[in-house]
Amino acid sequence: MAVSRRFVLALAGSVPLYGLAAGRAVGDPGLTQPGRATVRYTMTAFTNASESDLYVYESTDATNFQLLRGSAYQPPSGLLRDPSLIRHTDGRYYLTYTTGWEGQTIGFARSDDRVSWTHLDDYQVDVAGVTSTWAPEWFIDSNGEVNVLVSLSDGVRFTPHLMTATDPGLRSWTPLTPMVGLGPKADTGYGYIDTTVVLHRGQYYAFTKDEQTKFVELAVSDQLRGRYSFVQTGDWAGWGSPREGQCVIPLPGGGWRIYFDAYDDGEYLYSDSHDNFRTWTPTAELPGLSGTVRHFTVLPEHG
Questions:
Q1: pLDDT at 16
Q2: Which residues lie closer than 8 Å to 19 by C-beta, 6 or more apart?
Q3: 131: left (phi over 0), alpha (psi -120 to 50) or beta
Q4: Phi then psi for 228, rounded to 5 degrees?
Q5: Using CA of residue 257, residue 249, residue 143, residue 96, what is the dihedral sign?
Q6: CA–CA separation, 198 vs 137, rounded Å?
Q7: Distance between CA atoms of 200 and 204, rounded to whole angstroms?
Q8: pTM of the entire structure?
Q9: Angle at alpha carbon of residue 288, lines to 284 and 289, rounded to 5°
Q10: Residue 83 and residue 298: Cα distance in Å, rounded?
Q11: Of 146, 136, 167, which Cα lies nearest the Cα of 17?
Q12: 206-254 pLDDT per residue, tens
């Protein structure tokens, strides 16, 4: 049985890529321009049945996903939770993922075709006092910089951190630094996890889960590293709580979609916005996969 992160935190408390040759990825404003239909959406997920197997799905409409490969990849050791996917400028697909409930590593793997994967390495996080490294998430900036956002815990509170690739092969990285403005609100808070960022109209929008309230909140900054200011908190979008594992993608006809894990309800939900994140449609279950997949990302690509 899969263990929820809420349970683990309770225990602790008691003690976007541009100019691709073969496609475009999350964060590309070209995906929101009319007349530029997205050919394919790829989902990478783990499931209720296994925390160490990668499942890959694809869709043409971002709603109805079909299995491309079950158990497409298993890491040589540890877990595979929260898998995040990009397509790099070399045409290959890269995965980063959570390797364990506790520890100081995040995993990386690579594929030419999304179905056959090669383990690259388990990257050691060099930050003093870190007890857990959760939910690494890719972000490719407008200048082409490849970044990973990762939630680091001191044993009680989580703070989103950022590192930037320093080589084309994505094997070496700048030191991890906190994302300013996204730290714990108070000494009693659990902080923020599952942070995902999209670039929209020159600003960075961070969708991040408040581990105290279990709501997905929204913060904005002029720079990827911050300082972020929260513009929407609590149940601002009507999504409810607890929610986590959020993934935000542009829709080809304009607007945005968020997916998230309603883990207490055993459901995976999505909601859309067509007014620059101000209001959102009522949540709907992801057909076919709700109750099966867990914390995933979706990569839109043009043909």
A1: 38
A2: 89, 144
A3: alpha
A4: -90, 145
A5: positive
A6: 11
A7: 6
A8: 0.88
A9: 80
A10: 10
A11: 146
A12: 999 999 999 999 999 999 999 999 999 999 999 999 999 999 999 988 8
Residue 258 identity (one-letter amino acid): I
The residues pairing with 285 across neighbouring beta strands, listed in sequence order, are 269
Token output for 302: 């043009």
DSSP symbol at 281: P
CA distance 93 to 114: 7
| Mean pLDDT within 264-277 | 96
User: Strands across the sheet with 132-140, in order?
Assistant: 132-140, 146-153, 158-164, 177-178
**Structure tokens belonging to residue 120:** 């690259």
For residues 194, 291, 47, 37, the Cα torsion angle rounded to the nearest 10 degrees is -70
- The three-state secondary structure class of 126 is coil
Q: Would the CA dihedral through 115, 251, 230, 260 be positive or negative? A: negative
pLDDT range class, residue 186, cuts 50, 70, 90: confident
Reading across the β-sheet that carries 105-111, which strands appear in turn?
81-87, 93-98, 105-111, 117-124
pLDDT at 252: 85
The CA distance from 258 to 165, in Å, is 26
Q: How far apart are CA 107 and CA 292, in angstroms?
A: 23
Q: Find tokens 């160490």 and name the residue.
A: 52
The Cα 86–Cα 26 span in angstroms is: 8
